[in-house]
Specification:
mainly alpha
Amino acid sequence: MWKFLITVSLMTGLIVPMTIAELTKEDIREIEAIVQKSENRLQSQLREYIDLRFTAQDAKIDGKFARVDEQFANVDKQFAMVDKQFVELDKRLEIVYGFVIGLLILIVVAVGIPQIIIAHQTNRSGGWKKEIDPLKHEIETLKRNRVAKS
């Protein structure tokens, strides 16, 4: 243990005078130059690293924008196809609409004209009936008179 204490005391005695020594202005300038060089080198390396990172990020972003542009182009194509399909569907619906209107007109004509004819004949026959009823009544009167005379 004594050896250890002696060794530590000697080492401390040797180191302390070195640390107590004064720095000259020349030493301080050299230290500042070394520190400045180190700072400049670190700044340069940091700038290069940042530039590389920005370049990499720009490349990623450009790639993503390219994919988004591609997707928008695909969506635009799909919208164009859907628009074309709507135009075709609209044409078909116009044809179907015209066909349905034609069928409705045909049904109205097919059902309506016979009804009109029947109604007109009924009115005409009703008018004849009005003329026939008094004649029937007169014929019966004449028959009664003839039977009464005979």
